[in-house]
Structures are given as structure tokens and as C-alpha cells.
Amino acid sequence: AAPPPPPLVYVKASPLDHAALGDCPFTHKALLALQLKRVEYDTAPPVDLSVPRSAAYLAVNPKGSVPALALPDGSVLTESEDIIDYANKAGDAGAPDLDSGVDEETKGAVARAMAAVFGWIKNGDDGKEAACKAECCSALDALNGILESPGNEFLGGDSPNRLDCKLVPVLRIAAAALKEFKGFDLAQYPAPGLRAYKRRWSDLPAYKNTYYPDEAIVAGWRSKAGSLKPARPTVYAKASPLDRAALGDCPFTHKALLALRLRGIGYDASYVDLAVPRTLEYLAINPKGTVPALVPADGGKALTESEEIVDFASGTGAGPDLEACAADEDVRGLVGRLQPALYTWLKNGDMEREGELKAEAMEVLEGIDGFLEGRKFLGGEQPNRLDCKAAPLLKMARVALKEFKRVDVAGMFKGIAENERWWGEMEAWKDTFYPDEAIVATWKGKVAKL
């Protein structure tokens, strides 16, 4: 007798291409489970959810929802969890057990994240916006904590389980839809456990075989997203050497972004890849081709110097006074010396000058550290424009000097280390985050060998 045909899965059609897989998280969850368990299946023509369901599909699934899995015995599974159960039982016994590692705490954390992400995207009430964002960030922090625990490469431990299948589509929606509709960039959110988790998933065949583009997510959510987004300036920032769609480590860009966020000014970010020639579109905005650049919300003349953008923030937003300063002229001078001292030392390839350049950089760091001891910021209790300039350079010093010069800035300079800790508690710092690895990647090609 001929073997029975494989199950037939019905999926959401992409709003961009009705013949392609769309962005339904329930469908994606079920497909990931089938893929992880190596269940062979055929895919029916995708179901267009933007129009009434066909009589043929309603005969398969009277609810008209997706996903649906038609089995060889004539039965049809119309709930994603039922499809996962089927995959776990019918799939390859040598594949990961999708029920392994499932506990109530993690189950609750995933459900909370899904509700928080979807709730924030859909929110159109300005009075609830801050609470929606706070709940979403808290839910993401909880997941990050779980994933940073030893042995938790996935929620299921060393291999994905059914909760992973549920979470991954939610994180994809969070990354694409929150950035588009709420100006929240998950790639920049300080959650290293989530970032590592996403990288691990992206290497799996199950993820690659069920891929749909971010544009499909944005299109799928456009009619559901709450509209609160006013016209905002656009900031052109350096793209990360690790991810061209994420913020990179340019201290001039970081200075400008910190000033904007401290003053409560929202902006749309566009990332410029400095590793390749600038596009004609960007050169039309900024003929110098440098970053940062800010195009005002009214489309006026672009600001192409970081200090101009700080001036714009200082005179436009509402927040800490960026012109207030507890620092004297000597400290101002030290911050002015910081960038050339660090850059010259890191780029030095002349052994005869190494001691001299190290001494200059260490003198500057010691001076700034001495002023910061007992203070939160150079501006006192709140950061000012001098802090916006110094903080990205001090972060760079901590990372690059340890990597390339074996100097432990955080261990040697307690005032500087405490200053970065205070910064780390501020939303402006969190909103402009980029990982230490981006700094290392940038400097790897610039540091001279002695």
C-alpha cells in the first residue's frame, strides 16, 4: 500500500505577497514545532485573512482561523497548541522534546510578554502609553533574566521547547512593530540574554525555514497599531558593525542621541553604514557623509554637527538643563583632551611613543575620575552637555583599552565606573544602548600593532 500523504498545513498569507507565508504568531509557533520535530508536511496555498474565507477553506476549518493542520486520517487540528502536541508525538523521537523544561514561571513570563507587546502596539491612549511601555520593558527584563541563567540557551535549556516556539514570533513582532509604531528599538534595548537568544535561533534550520520579512509584520500590524506617533525629527546614526540595522558606537552620534533623549525629544533613527560609500540619498541630506545628522520634523535644513544637535535639544525639549555645569574649566579641558588622547594611543604603532601616549590618556582619565568621585555626573545630580560628550568616550575607553591595551578602566577608576552605573539607570542611556562588542569590532581594524 502506498504510504499516507503528509499532513497539510494552512498558514496566513503575507499582506505583501498572498502566495507567501505571512506573520501570524500562532501559525509561526506551530510551524516551528513541526520543523523542530522534523515532521514532514505539505503547505496549502496561504489563506488571505484580509478577505472573507473561501467556502473550500471553511469546509476544512469552519472557524476560518489559521493555522490548521489536516491529518491523513481526515481530522483537522485548528489550534496551534494542538498542532504542537501532534508534532511532539508524531515527530522524530531523536528531536528535542517540546515539553521538556516547561514550568509555570516561564510559561507565565512568555504569556505576559505576548500580552504586553501586543497591548503596547495596539494602545492609542496617550494617558496609558507610559504604563504600556513600562509593562513591556518589565516583561522583556523578566525574560532576559531567565535566559541569562546558566544553562538556559533556550527556555527549554540546551534545546527549544514549546514555550520557545511561542516566544520567538512574539520577539519578531516586538522588534519590527514596536520600532515602526512606537519608536522602540528592541535591538538597542539592554537585554543581552534576549539578543544572544535571538542569534541562537537565527542559526537554526527551523527558524530559517519559517522566515518572513519584517515588512510583512509591519504591514500586518498597521491597521491594528494605536496611533500616537507625532511628526518627529529623523536622526541619521552610525550602523553597528555587528548588525547594519542597529545603532553603532560612534561617540559623536551617541552624544547627540543622549542630549535628545535627556530632553525628552523623540526621533526616528536611520542607520548609515560607514563601511561602504554613502548613498546618494544620504549625501543629499549631508554632503559631508558624516554622522550624526538630524533632519527636523518639518523637513528643514539638516543639522550635521553633534554640537548643533545638542544645541537643538537644549533649546527644544524639556528635561535636565544641559547648560548647567558643576565642572570648572580644568574639567572642561580634560573632557576636551579625552578623545584625542584615547584615539592617538589606541592607533599608535610606534613603541617609542607608547609610554608618552599612555601617560597622556591616563592623566586625562585620572583627572576626570577625581572630579567624579562623590558626584553622579559632571553636571552634578543630573547630566549636562559635558556628560553627553564624555560618557560615550568613557564607555569606549572602558571597552577598547581593556581589549587592546590591557588597561582595566572600570577597576582603576571608581568615579568613572560609578558614573557609568548612574548613567545605566537612566532611560536616555537605555534608549541609546549599543553592546561592547560593537566598540571592539569598530576598533579592531584601527588599532595599530606594536
Q: Name the overall outline.
A: elongated
Largest sheet: 4 strands, mixed
Q: Percent range for helical residues? A: 40-55%
Order of helix and strand elements from N to C terminus: EHEHEEHHHHHHHEHEHEHHHHHHHH
| Mean pLDDT across residues | 93
Low-confidence segments, ≥5 residues, pLDDT <50? none
Number of helices: 19
Structural class: mainly alpha
Radius of gyration based on Cα positions = 26 Å
- The percentage of residues in β strands lies in 5-15%
The beta-strand count equals 7
Spell out the key features of this protein.
7 strands; 19 helices; 4-stranded mixed beta sheet; elongated; mainly alpha
Task: Please explain how this structure is put together.
A hairpin with a 5-residue loop joins strand 3 (68-70) and strand 4. The protein contains 19 helices and seven strands. The chain has 450 residues and is mainly alpha-helical. 52% of the residues lie in helices and 5% in strands. The strands form two sheets. A four-stranded mixed beta sheet has the order 2-1-3-4. Strands 6-5-7 form a three-stranded mixed beta sheet, covered by helices on one side.
